[in-house]
Specification:
By secondary structure, the chain is an all-alpha fold. The protein has 14 helices and 4 strands. A two-stranded antiparallel ribbon has the order 1-4. Strands 2-3 form a two-stranded antiparallel ribbon. It is globular.
Amino acid sequence: MSTAAEILTRMHSRRGWIGVGVLALIGLLLMPLLNTALPPTSPLHLPDHVVTLLGKFCCFAITAVALDLIWGFCGILSLGHGVFFALGGYAMGMYLMLSIGAQGVYKSALPDFMVFLDWKELPWFWRGFDNLSVALIAALVVPGLLAFAFGYFAFRSRIRGVYFSIITQALTYALMLLFFRNETGFGGNNGLTDFKSLYGYDLHQPSTKVTLYVLSALALLATYLLCRYIVTSKAGRVLRAIRDAESRAMFVGFNPTSYKLFAWTLSAVLCGLAGALYVPQVGIINPGEMQPANSIEMGIWVAVGGRATLFGAILGAFVVNGMRSFFTAAMPNAWLYVLGLLFIAVTLFFPDGVAGALGRLKRKS
């Protein structure tokens, strides 16, 4: 049995833990204080919209870490992780819609879109979602079950490489088309929106926005530490062996299907968590979150930050989405070109991503 000290040493060096601690203090303590403790007139004040933006970035970073777990350490490139993110978001959105109650446009216990479509009662799969605990459990379990069922048949059939990437993209596209239909009961093209409160707290209040940001940052820290623990354990070494030489790993007695299924399912669950935290902060969830382009962009976050580093995935999510926020405001029509050029530049000049480039600079110094 490994002691706690051995596990911590295996996960990070002393300098690494200091770095994690400093970043955690900045994210969990300094950022909220800059928003709540300083007056808006202060040059150091962090505006409310920036707090919400950082909360969104934390959710994206959780997704990037989840994708890096399977792509960087297991060699499985998924182009469909957007569907797991969206399913977690829909689970939370269903709770938020039922929380509106009589505050809706039609003053009905049913969500407004159901009243508009002349639905007479709540569908069976919406029942229980007026409870936050049920919604949170569903946000984790539904993506996990879908991933487990999909992965079980795909990995048993030895589907891998570009073929696996293609069928994951087909999965997210099929579900996107399904959720676009009004009769499925998820708001159709418009999705779920116009949320009022979360567990009784007004979503438009600055204090609620700060709380959601802190929860997202805590979830990101927990996700990183969990994945770091896994990849530095014996299971992590097996995952890397499967990535590098699956046939050899199977020859020496390991079952690649079980290990890949574990990593794949856990990755989907983490994406569901990210989606559940994302929706209250942006105020909407619709089938557009499932479009294949979103899943491809998630892969770009990991590639830009650096595969098989975890920290690089976080860095990539913040860098790419920070650039998106800037360019979509300054030059809206140029963003997709910038994203394409960024991916090409990283592929040609920084194949191991920003984290790899920083590591080389550190070794040279």
